[in-house]
Design a protein that fits this description.
alpha/beta, homodimer, 12 strands, LacI/GalR-like_sensor (chains A, B), transcription (chains A, B), 335 residues, 6-stranded parallel β-sheet, 17% strand
Chain lengths: 335, 335
């Protein structure tokens, strides 16, 4: 295994310089520190063999997701993780990410330098710079709603979206709906791609006609509903499943503006079960993600990776929360 | 929640009779005991609230799988499960299953009557009677290599077969192979279906032509290789992936009988990494399932279900064990 001496030898610096760099000592230049950390990562030097005295700590890295109050999607995920990690003796640091930070340093180097043996990563899009690093990284990382194939140091945690989509389609079919539409933000994240794909496979599984025109996709929620809701209604769609609850809420507003009553004229299903869903007009039927349990699963998966068990996928069963945004299929009326 | 008194009232028997039936007392008829247990299950009576004094116990139910010595596939799976369950205070009973036993009593009733709060189930085929029960059962059950959709009391544990198949196809493609065949036993189990499906998706993912004639399927291994190996060779296949290691070993024998050298003339990849793979002629390249870790994951998933966390899927990363049954793509010669 790589030692501090090996790293020093490769770079022609002393062991103590390497040690200073890896421990963030102030009397070393930023450039040299970066070179040493990157060389350490390249040579497979592992944080796990460092000083045992310091407190064990893990990080939750968050990009593209709000988490600071209880109405935010990430809030309960982080609580769930901490509820298991902290009693197990870990300090948990929550660190917001941005692309500049990701570009300034590789993922393994970041983790090594900050002395984190493992990370729980929330909200990464497919074009985030570290998504590339994670293809070949060595530091245990659990990703919420992102799947990295063939890297045994990474695990994907989420709900079973295929099951959730199937629950939604089956439920609408049982209410008599035969033509169901789908609205989504851009397919720039793993999970929007999965939901888009499983929407069509759920239609086929339930014996309903699958047609690409049944899905409307735009980057912005407002653009998406303004552009695609009228098109779906024109096609005779009597129910719409949305990629997330905000989209579903905007869809309900848009439908009402078009003179449609919910659920009499059109049924709407969301995805996620955000706290707002109980208070939308009408209260929203949605596929639930239990964020607290997802956070706990995130910790359990990370613990497995840290113990050398290459867990790759850990999915919670999905469930459908029935409220009042869906009804028996009637004829869509446009006044 | 349902009590013993509720069950007695429904059936018009005393509380003590119900209690006797649920505790296997000898002074009660087999017919009455069966009726009481089935009614208890139907009414949602849960073992979890029974006598706390007795030792906690779990069962491993095994059908269609050998497990009694270290060369058997199930051996290490059971050891892995016990390595975590026993230190946690559980007695683990290993119970062989057959269809007659499954037909004589429902799954929930069996578990309730034997006082098992949860089960780890190995080797079930899709037509096993309890596979139906498991669609709607309430007793926590983790299934190795079987997926039950939409039942939050069940979890599927296995390796990521899609990833494993992709590793095998990519590996062969990198060796220059462009026409790869697949041999499988009957598609009567969840996992043979998954491997068959993922074989074709792996071909497509790697930019290779996918053609149904590239897969040969027969119930018996000997029939499969005798019938399909010549057909695959005739089609110009230069590599064959097999649904399991025994099939791969038989394929190597069959190829040699047809005058082909392995790996010079044809490459063979197995699935599972059984202990025999290191000693086949030549030693076999295969997709590994780490049985010990699978057993451990089985326990971890069952623990989650017992704690009310509806884990639905837990997959280990697959890996490819490179031995000597694959080589650079040459021209297939038939002498």
């Amino acid at each position: 295994m790589t030692t501090i001496a090996d790293i020093g030898k490769r770079l022609g610096v002393s062991k103590s310089t390497v040690s200073k760099a890896l421990n963030n000592a102030p009397d070393i230049s930023e450039t040299l520190r970066k070179t040493i950390v990157e060389t350490a990562v390249e040579m497979g030097y592992s944080k796990l063999r460092q000083n045992k005295k310091e407190q064990k700590k893990l990080c939750i890295l968050v990009e593209n997701m709000d988490y600071t109050n209880e109405l935010h999607f990430g809030y309960q995920i982080i609580i769930g993780f901490r509820q298991l990690a902290e009693p197990a003796g870990y300090q948990v640091d929550v660190i917001p990410l941005d692309t500049a930070m990701q570009r300034s340093m590789g993922f393994d180097a970041f983790m090594l330098q900050r002395h984190y043996p493992g990370a729980f990563i929330l909200g990464m899009a497919l074009n985030d710079p570290w998504m590339n690093d994670l293809q070949t990284s060595h530091t245990p990382a659990v990703l919420y709603d992102n799947y990295i194939p063939e890297n045994p140091a990474t695990c994907y945690v989420g709900i079973d979206n295929s099951e959730g989509m199937n629950l939604a389609v089956k439920y609408l079919k049982n209410l008599g709906h035969r033509k169901i539409g789908y609205l989504s933000t851009s397919l720039g994240s793993y999970i929007t791609q999965v939901r888009h794909r499983t929407f069509f496979s759920a239609l086929r599984k339930n014996g309903l006609k699958s047609d690409p025109r049944l899905a409307g996709i735009s980057f912005h929620v407002s653009e998406c509903v303004q552009k695609h809701v009228p098109k779906l209604i024109e096609q005779g769609v009597t129910a719409i499943i949305c990629c997330h609850d905000q989209m579903a809420n905007a869809t309900m507003v848009q439908c009402r503006e078009a003179g449609l009553k919910i659920p009499e004229d059109i049924s709407i299903v969301g995805f996620d079960d955000l706290p707002i869903c109980a208070y939308t007009e009408p209260p929203m039927t949605t596929v639930r993600q239990d964020q607290l349990l997802l956070g706990k699963c995130g910790y359990q998966a990370l613990e497995s990776l840290l113990e050398g068990v290459p867990v790759g996928t850990l999915l919670l069963h999905a469930s459908l929360v029935e409220r009042q945004s869906c009804g028996d299929c009637g004829r869509v009326k446009i006044d």
